[in-house]
Amino acid sequence: MEAASTKLVIEMAFTLEGSTAEELPERALGSVRLSKVDLAEDKTRTPDL
């Protein structure tokens, strides 16, 4: 059975909140899409000791 995380898609966008009329409308600074993330293959985490 395939792990559910291999079908996972994560989309994130980054903005700075505008608090004055000069700073509006807010716009995305950048975005990223992570597709088919396999959490079982995570090589960056170290085991808790």
Keywords:
2 strands, 49 residues, mainly beta, two-stranded antiparallel sheet, 0% helix
Describe the secondary structure blueprint for this structure.
Elements: E1 9-14, E2 30-35
Antiparallel strand pairs: 1-2
Largest sheet, order of strands side by side? 1-2
Share of β-strand residues: 15-25%
**What oligomeric state is this?**
single chain
Counting helices, strands and paired strands, the structural category is mainly beta
Give the beta-strand count. 2
Low-pLDDT residue intervals, each spanning 5 or more residues: none
Organism: Beta vulgaris subsp. vulgaris
Protein name: Protein ENHANCED DISEASE RESISTANCE 2 C-terminal domain-containing protein
Description of the structure:
There is one protein chain. With 49 residues, this protein is an all-beta fold. The protein contains no helices and two strands. It has strands at residues 9-14, 30-35. Strands 1-2 form a two-stranded antiparallel ribbon. The mean pLDDT is 82.
Short description, anyone?
The protein has 49 residues and is an all-beta fold.
